[in-house]
Amino acid sequence: APLPARQRITILGATGSIGSSTLDVITRHPERYCVHALSAASRHEALLALCLTHRPQVVVIGSAGAAEVLREALSGIESYTGAPIEVRYGEQALVDISEAPEVDSVMAAIVGAAGLLPTLAAVRAGKRVLLANKEALVCAGQLFMDAVKQHGATLLPIDSEHNAIFQCLPAQHREGLAPIGVEKLLLTASGGPFRDETEWPPERLAAVTPAQACAHPNWSMGRKISVDSATLMNKGLELIEACWLFACRPDDIQVVVHPQSVIHSMAAYSDGSVLAQMGNPDMRTPIAYALAWPERIDAGVEPLDLFQVARLDFRAADEERFPCLRLAREAIAAGGTWPAVMNAANEVAVAAFLEGQLAFDRIPLLVEAVMQARPPQVVDGLEVILSEDAAARELASAQLAVLGP
Ligand code: NAD
Ligand code: MG
């Protein structure tokens, strides 16, 4: 269907790294986009500032207390439609702003499985869904893709690798790689801050601090995904994400460490052609692509200067130093509830690491222990995913007592 004059957008996770980049792109094109709703878990001052700039109709925050503060601060302020700004809190409010009839597109940029229900609500309402929240797809891939088909939602990947692959494939690619002549997907990885084995031997990896793990060489991102990039769990989650988005198997995907992050991923065709999407590492490119698709708009991104880049390097990923990638392969190969279990355990492990409660090199040990304790089950609906997610979190917290400092 043709897009309306102005796309009305809900941004889930508006105060985050992806949320801010999305608002940056939207602000460049006021004739094309307006903001229906914004959400954040906490940080009501930051959310208030966004409301004053973007004048959404609805704003959603995590707690009743924060909602009260926001309501006070926004009294007398009108939304872009001229109505008062509605302030809400809690999970149902997130679902409501994702499926509201006046919404055209939903940017799913909450971090973690917490984004699953609102993102799925957007899919079930047949929205144009801009998917940054990879954990939602990892947890509930089959349900999610079935719902996309059933409700005619448009799913546009924001993760730079998947956005790159999407750009390198023909428009009709939901039936897998064989019908479109693709042999392999090449998923690039920066390798994270600890990719250099001589600089980061095992004893140094054990003593990594949160600040070191969050200092990503090429991308500026939220803290959870930064730690995932450092353990390579991010690439593991992306491997699973790619299997669902492009209807393929883990064996169809090759992980390629490419330290410059200039190629964002590739598709290798049966005639020998390899198509790559390139650009500076700036998330505004995939965000602008998905916002405007199938058109193209200015994203505010510096043009790529190949003479400055000078060279592109490629090497294999080291799954022994970074076992999370292997765990993700095992999780998607076994299928069922295992990816959800792995993801939940990883969320607990990363949060504990960021709070100084778990050593960096024990993150994969904790994840593997939880996976071993929760064998995969068949997914026959959302219930089993939510209950396995909860059980895995409980087991992971218990494991902290064993593996913690
Ligand atoms: P972030 O931590 O910067 O922001 C997360 C946002 O989600 C914030 O607005 C926060 O308030 C909200 N949030 C957190 N927990 C919540 C909860 N329990 N309920 C409701 N809202 C909650 O994260 P980010 O880096 O912007 O990443 C967001 C998602 O996008 C992640 O799934 C990440 O993997 C993915 N992603 C990010 C990047 C990047 O460059 N930052 C790249 C690719 C994919
Ligand atoms: Mg990515």
UniProtKB/TrEMBL annotation:
User: At which positions is NADPH bound?
Assistant: 15-18, 41, 133, 135, 222
Which residues are Mn(2+)-binding?
Answer: 159, 161, 238
Report the residue ranges that make up the 1-deoxy-D-xylulose 5-phosphate reductoisomerase C-terminal domain in this protein.
155-246
Q: What cofactors does this protein use?
A: Mg(2+); Mn(2+)
Which residue numbers delimit the DXP reductoisomerase C-terminal domain? Answer: 278-394
Q: Which EC number(s) does the record attach to this protein?
A: 1.1.1.267
Example GO biological process: isopentenyl diphosphate biosynthetic process, methylerythritol 4-phosphate pathway involved in terpenoid biosynthetic process
Q: Which InterPro entries does the record associate with it?
A: DXP_reductoisomerase, DXP_reductoisomerase_C, DXP_reductoisomerase_N, DXPR_C, DXPR_C_sf, NAD(P)-bd_dom_sf
Keywords, A to Z, come to: Isomerase, Isoprene biosynthesis, Magnesium, Manganese, Metal-binding, NADP, Oxidoreductase
Question: 1-deoxy-D-xylulose 5-phosphate reductoisomerase N-terminal domain: which residues?
Answer: 9-141
Q: Does the keyword Manganese apply?
A: yes
Q: Which reaction does it catalyse?
A: 2-C-methyl-D-erythritol 4-phosphate + NADP(+) = 1-deoxy-D-xylulose 5-phosphate + NADPH + H(+)
Pfam family, any one: DXP_reductoisom
Which enzyme class, named as a word? oxidoreductase
Give any GO molecular function from the UniProt entry.
manganese ion binding
Q: What does this protein do?
A: Catalyzes the NADPH-dependent rearrangement and reduction of 1-deoxy-D-xylulose-5-phosphate (DXP) to 2-C-methyl-D-erythritol 4-phosphate (MEP).
Output the HAMAP family linked to this UniProt entry: DXP_reductoisom
Family per record: Belongs to the DXR family.
State what protein this is by name.
1-deoxy-D-xylulose 5-phosphate reductoisomerase
Species whose genome carries this gene: Cobetia crustatorum
**From which lineage does this chain's organism come?**
Bacteria, Pseudomonadati, Pseudomonadota, Gammaproteobacteria, Oceanospirillales
